[in-house]
Design a protein that fits this description.
Radius of gyration: 32 Å
Helix content: 25-40%
Number of helices: 19
Structural class: alpha+beta
């Protein structure tokens, strides 16, 4: 066992310490490495547009759960702390030993009271209104690595006592490791133990690894155990908690209806996809892993650093975090009722990710600093925000949230800063990028043909095959890759889109043309006419068309303008055409006259395709509405 006091990880094998936390806590499967058994790296799942805002098929009160007062406490579903880890140091502030603060009396008390038969000696005891017991299988001691000068033994022993609630499951538990705290700690060979600060006081160090315990329950549990062992409870009093005490692990979870989770959390284009896509489009670090082999969302997790979480929540974050959605190792059948077995429904969990955080521990309690209480609040707030972004109720809707033995699926009023979902904006930005490249006027017909072939079944094809499909040459394929280098890539002589979102957007846009040739040989380049000096590729109108994926051709009576296949609301349509009117006016009087007298086509959201429309009157007003001030 290690004596590294300042190292944030468990001193020993956490899998061993919490290894039997299977059905409800799954503590042995709670790392991103363990929860997804995937040998191959894959692209992020294709994000299929905005996540649905429907709360639940049977929840007509959706809007009730989407409203909140951001200026004060609001009722929200109450997540449960799952796993928690802390290094605690107890030292008596009013005692001095060998010229140093504190005393080894608390450690000596553990030594004197520990017996191999301690589980039988203590028996059952009451903590927080529940019966608890010592788990003899995980209670033991060993010779540590800290030298014990002036004592009849070479090194100090270390003691491990595991306790658990007698609740039928035994998953509300803690493993406590007791070690001495001494200044200028050294090994038996006299070497300094650098991981332990030289100026530590005398006292008792306790490493606590707990499951289904709140942070503020850990010290009272230690105090209660001490009393049962006839150890003075004063050793564990609040005033004896030293400033070096810290936490290194915290996870919070809730359990939700499987159908709602698959639709809003783990499904294609749902919130995990959105978070991963947001992270991949931002500067920073992150990771996305999934395992849908046995059931959708069997082991899915997204990790982001704290800078990316800051962009998501629009406020500073103390740590990087991992969002995890998972079933037990042996996922229940879909036919299993949650009333009979809550584990038929999955968990949604938010963890402090040390891999994506600069800090490896947080102070136990520190005024005006990020400490354990701040960490818990941040995880709580972030988890409820994930629910909001997923389109799930932030209140304790019993049709969505499933109570288990430790998660009550209840709500409480808390002062949480909930923010709207900014992630669709990132998706829209990537889609706009695709539109701009789709309509760009600086590619040759051959290069456009390559991109059309890539979209129409050629994604991932080798260069020779793609040249054949596009009726071009190998050199044209490579030129197209260079022209659209931020959208496509060639690896191992095979060409593919960089991202599934871009691929889908290109497919959607190509589907708006009756003939792909319309795009290959047409598009905004057909603006070049006898008025080329006024309507060129750098004109405001051409830039507007490229930006929005608009196809413009000319007829004897004016322009023929296709606004694309993306369904538009009435407001979006008006805004888009008004922007076009302004762009045409900035491109010259001839372009302006042809544009406002042109025929328009578009797809109306909920109303189908509209063609041969003339939505602009002679004054340039759109849809005969008042023209806004310019």
């Amino acid at each position: 066992m290690s004596d590294d006091y300042l190292e944030p990880g468990p001193q020993g094998d956490l899998d061993e310490l919490l290894g039997d936390a299977e059905p409800v806590t799954a503590a042995d499967e709670d790392t991103i490495e363990a929860e997804v058994d995937s040998d191959e790296a894959r692209e992020l799942r294709d994000a299929a547009g905005d996540a649905s805002r429907q709360v639940h098929p049977s929840s007509p009160e959706a809007t009730e759960y989407q409203t909140f007062d951001s200026d004060g406490p609001i009722p929200c579903v109450e997540p449960r702390v799952h796993a928690f880890g802390a290094h605690l140091l107890f030292s008596q502030p009013d005692v001095d030993e060998n010229g140093h603060p504190g005393s080894l009396a608390p450690y000596d008390a553990i030594v004197s009271q520990y017996e191999p038969s301690i589980a039988d000696d203590v028996g059952s005891f009451v903590f927080d209104g529940e019966l608890w017991e010592i788990n003899p299988e995980k209670t033991k001691y060993w010779s540590g690595g800290i030298a014990a000068p002036g004592r009849p033994y070479e090194t100090f022993n270390e003691y491990q006592i595991a306790v658990r609630a007698q609740d039928g499951l035994g998953e509300r538990k803690a493993t406590l490791q007791f070690r001495p705290s001494i200044p200028d700690a050294r090994t038996a060979n006299g070497d300094r133990i650098d991981s332990m600060p030289e100026g530590l006081p005398y006292g008792l160090r306790v490493q606590a690894n707990s499951s289904n315990l709140e942070p503020d329950e850990v010290i009272p549990l230690i105090r209660c155990l001490g009393e049962e062992m006839d150890i003075n409870a004063h050793y564990f009093a609040d005033e004896c908690v030293h400033e070096h005490s810290n936490a290194y692990q915290m996870e919070m979870y809730l359990r939700m209806d499987r159908g709602a989770g698959e639709q809003h959390v783990a499904g294609q284009g749902a919130v995990l996809d959105q978070i991963a896509l947001f992270g991949s489009n931002s500067r920073g670090r992150g990771e996305y892993k999934w395992d849908n082999e046995k059931v959708i969302g069997h082991r899915n997790a997204v990790a982001l650093d704290k800078g990316t979480w800051k962009k998501l929540t629009e406020k500073p974050n103390g740590v990087g975090k991992l969002v995890k959605y998972y079933h037990p190792e042996f996922a229940r059948s879909e036919e299993t009722s949650a009333e009979d077995d809550p584990l038929s429904d999955p968990k949604l969990e938010l963890q402090w990710s040390k891999e994506y955080s600069k800090r490896s521990s947080v102070p136990w309690e520190a005024e005006d600093e990020f400490d354990v209480e701040s960490l818990r609040h941040e995880l709580d707030e972030s988890l409820v925000n994930v629910l909001l972004w997923a389109g799930l109720p932030t209140r304790a809707d019993p049709r969505v949230y499933t109570a288990d033995h430790y998660f009550d699926a209840t709500e409480s009023e808390r002062d949480l800063d909930l923010v709207g979902n900014r992630m669709p904006n990132v998706q829209e930005g990537e889609e706009e990028q695709a539109v701009a490249h789709f309509a760009r006027g600086d590619a040759s017909e051959g290069e456009r043909s390559v991109l059309a072939a890539l979209t129409d079944g050629g994604d991932g094809a080798d260069v020779e095959r793609l040249a054949e499909m596009s009726d071009t040459s190998r050199s044209t394929v490579y030129r197209a890759a260079d022209k659209f280098d931020d959208l496509v890539e060639i690896a191992n002589a095979k060409m593919s889109f960089e991202d599934g979102v871009i691929r889908e957007k290109f497919q959607d846009l190509l589907n708006t043309f009756e003939d792909v040739t319309e795009w290959v040989v047409g598009g905004v380049r057909q603006l070049a006419s006898e008025e080329a000096s006024m309507i060129d590729q750098d004109s405001a109108l051409a830039r507007w068309a490229r930006r929005h994926g608009v196809s413009i051709t000319e007829s004897a009576d004016g322009m023929v303008v296709d606004l694309g296949g993306q369904p538009l609301t009435r407001l979006e349509l008006v805004k888009l055409i008004r922007a076009g009117v302004d762009a045409a006016e900035n491109s010259g009087m001839m372009a302006y006259r042809k544009f406002i007298s042109g025929e328009f086509s578009w797809t109306e959201r909920g109303g189908g395709r509209r063609t041969n429309q003339r939505p602009i009157n002679r004054n340039g007003d759109v849809l005969f509405s008042s023209k806004p001030p310019r």
